[in-house]
């Protein structure tokens, strides 16, 4: 499979897509790139995610993108990046969305870890759970609309500067990439957050997203993920064949401030078998809200 590094992304600057002109490369991932675009009709900046067709060449991936375009457009939730348009040119698929002024959760986690004061290297639990609950609310809404994200990770959760509101990005694009990934022997993205059923390339549903959120929650309250230092291929294999051995310690063993109740919630969300997880993201969210409420009273 081709990689994003083999494509001259800067050559796309100046390209016009309908009423939007790509003006600056903002960032890139393993298969896609994000540009700042300018929409001349409404005189506003937008974000434009592109997925070169050379990187999503399988018929399944291309069909997935086209099928998802109509579904994604109906998503309307304060914690989901609004998508204005999805389409394709001869060279790439694209998604035009609101440009969020802020940082992704991955950057916030990394910045906290570098704080000179050790006690500041983990975000306050209340702040973390506040973020996680809003993400779960967004996912529960999307799942009710029949949309599963399939690539929930800190880099796909944006925190806007003004209201400190978490906003989930990459709906639609993520499923297309996963369709391409499933059609090849290549690995897509980091395997840290994917569920065992994704590693095994079996059927997924909303509990797949729940597992990923559970891993993020574990990372944020423990300070780091208790996993082995192994290659992405080995991580995928471990999640596929021996998922119960993926985490090498309980969150409380990494950070003693994680109590039994919170650890139990994380364990349920990240259970290897989907049937042992919460029924849905709403149940997960309610458990966290109850935990915070009880913790505050104590």
TrEMBL record:
This is Serine/threonine protein kinase. PANTHER family: MITOGEN-ACTIVATED PROTEIN KINASE KINASE KINASE 20-RELATED, SERINE_THREONINE-PROTEIN KINASE YBDM-RELATED. Pfam families: Pkinase. Gene3D superfamilies: Phosphorylase Kinase, domain 1, Transferase(Phosphotransferase) domain 1. ATP binds at residue 49. Coiled coil: none annotated. InterPro entries: Kinase-like_dom_sf, Prot_kinase_dom, Protein_kinase_ATP_BS, Ser/Thr_kinase_AS. It comes from Trichlorobacter thiogenes.
């Amino acid at each position: 499979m081709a990689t994003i590094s083999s494509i001259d992304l800067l050559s796309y600057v100046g390209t016009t897509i309908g009423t939007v002109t790509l003006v600056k490369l903002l960032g890139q991932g393993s298969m896609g790139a994000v540009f700042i675009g300018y929409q001349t009709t409404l005189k506003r900046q937008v974000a434009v995610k592109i997925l070169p067709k050379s990187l999503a060449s399988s018929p399944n991936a291309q069909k997935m993108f086209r099928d998802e375009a109509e579904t994604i457009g109906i998503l309307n939730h304060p914690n989901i990046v609004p998508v204005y348009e999805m389409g394709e040119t001869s060279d790439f698929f694209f998604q035009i969305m609101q440009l969020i002024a802020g940082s992704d959760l991955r950057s916030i986690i990394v910045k906290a870890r570098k704080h000179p004061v050790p006690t500041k290297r983990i975000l306050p639990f209340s702040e973390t759970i506040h973020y996680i609950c809003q993400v779960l609310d967004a996912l529960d809404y999307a799942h009710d609309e029949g949309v599963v994200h399939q690539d929930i990770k800190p880099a796909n959760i944006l925190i806007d500067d003004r209201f400190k509101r978490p906003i989930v990005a990459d709906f639609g694009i993520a499923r297309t990439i996963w369709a391409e990934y499933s059609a090849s022997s290549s690995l897509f993205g980091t395997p840290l957050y994917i569920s065992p059923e994704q590693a095994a390339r079996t059927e997924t549903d909303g509990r797949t997203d729940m597992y990923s959120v559970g891993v993020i929650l574990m990372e944020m309250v423990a300070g780091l993920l208790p996993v082995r230092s192994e290659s992405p291929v080995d991580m995928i294999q471990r999640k596929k064949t021996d998922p119960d051995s993926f985490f090498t310690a309980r969150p409380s063993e990494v950070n003693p401030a994680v109590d039994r109740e919170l650890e139990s919630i994380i364990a349920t969300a990240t259970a290897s078998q989907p049937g042992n997880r919460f029924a849905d993201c709403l149940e997960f969210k309610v458990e966290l809200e109850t935990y915070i409420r009880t913790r505050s009273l104590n």
